């Protein structure tokens, strides 16, 4: 089954304790991205990656790191989590072949709810 | 600044009636628009899209209308069904940015039996 898999789905942690949220896709997609969803703010992009070893900041990158060493994986790293990073996080991927093919359609993971105390 | 805005946080309609969800955007470079649906405890799923060269796209019960001069798009669901109850996100992208989507705040649609 074609899918984007995120882990963990739920996590409660404390301020300053480094954590990694993993993301893996099995569709051979070039493009991967991380979003956070907060009430009243919708989905905001954190980081994205056009391909292996190519990453760039989204709209709210502060406090996050990413890496893209393999095409299928795109982990999100919180080096020193703070309470304002309490949120629902989504990983997504797409083919990125151009507009006409509908390749802008993102496939999302099920989400990772993170609470930082 | 919020480049994509959904001004109605919630909408409630009766089963069988039409649901109209609205979305406004400010960036004139946006040329591809999408609607996503999200159920609780699941990720958003793609619903329907429209390119800026069109003003209407239809897929079964779902139709998206685009008014470029007003920088406004809407999603019509006819007839509405209880299973349509979900949060709907409007999203937009520029051709040059490919898959980089900018999302609105979302609208919670409730369809009452």
Protein model, in words:
The complex is a heterodimer of chains A (117) and B (113). Chain A has no helices and eleven strands. Chain A has 117 residues and is mainly beta. In chain A, the strands form two sheets. In chain A, strands 2, 4, 5, 6, 9, 10 and 11 form a seven-stranded mixed sheet that branches. In chain A, strands 1-3-8-7 form a four-stranded antiparallel sheet, with no helix packed on it. Chain A is globular, with a radius of gyration of 14 Å. The relative contact order of chain A is 0.32. Chain B is an all-beta fold and 113 residues long. Chain B is built from no helices and eleven strands. In chain B, the strands form two sheets. In chain B, strands 2, 4, 5, 9, 10 and 11 form a six-stranded mixed sheet that branches. In chain B, a hairpin with a 4-residue loop joins strand 7 and strand 8. Chain B is globular and about 45 Å long. The N and C termini of chain B lie far apart (38 Å). The chains are: A mainly beta (117), B mainly beta (113). At the A-B interface, strand 4, strand 5, strand 9 and strand 10 of A face strand 4, strand 5, strand 9 and strand 10 of B.
Which key terms come to mind for this protein?
heterodimer; A: 117 residues; mainly beta; seven-stranded mixed β-sheet; four-stranded antiparallel β-sheet; 11 strands; 0% helix; globular; B: 113 residues; six-stranded mixed β-sheet; five-stranded antiparallel β-sheet; 53% strand
Largest sheet of chain A: 7 strands, mixed
Strand content of chain A: over 45%
Report the uncertain regions of chain A. Answer: none
How many β-strands of chain B, per DSSP? 11
How many helices of chain A? The count is 0
What is the helix/strand order of chain A? EEEEEEEEEEE
Which secondary-structure class do the elements of chain B indicate? mainly beta
The two chains with the largest interface, and their residue counts, are: A-B, 31 and 28 residues
């Amino acid at each position: 089954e074609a899918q984007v898999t995120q882990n963990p789905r739920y996590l409660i942690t404390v301020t300053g304790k480094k954590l990694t949220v993993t993301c893996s896709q099995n569709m051979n997609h070039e493009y991967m991205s991380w979003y956070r969803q907060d009430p009243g703010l919708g989905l905001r992009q954190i980081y994205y990656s056009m391909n292996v070893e190519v990453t760039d900041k989204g709209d709210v990158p502060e406090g996050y790191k990413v890496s893209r060493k393999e095409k299928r994986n795109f982990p999100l790293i919180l080096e020193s989590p703070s309470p304002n990073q309490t949120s629902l996080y989504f990983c997504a991927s797409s083919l990125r072949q151009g507009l006409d093919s509908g390749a802008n359609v993102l496939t999302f993971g099920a989400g990772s709810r993170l609470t930082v105390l | 600044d919020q480049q994509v805005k959904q001004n109605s946080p919630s909408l409630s309609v009766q089963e069988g009636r039409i649901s109209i969800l609205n979305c406004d955007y400010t960036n004139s470079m946006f040329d591809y628009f999408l609607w996503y649906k999200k159920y609780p405890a699941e990720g958003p799923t793609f619903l329907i899209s429209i390119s800026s060269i069109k003003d209407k796209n239809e897929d079964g019960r779902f139709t998206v209308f685009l008014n470029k001069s007003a920088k406004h798009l809407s999603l019509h669901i006819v007839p509405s069904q209880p299973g349509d109850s979900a949060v709907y996100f409007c999203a937009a992208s520029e051709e040059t940015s490919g898959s980089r989507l900018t999302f609105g705040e979302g609208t919670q649609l409730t369809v009452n039996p």
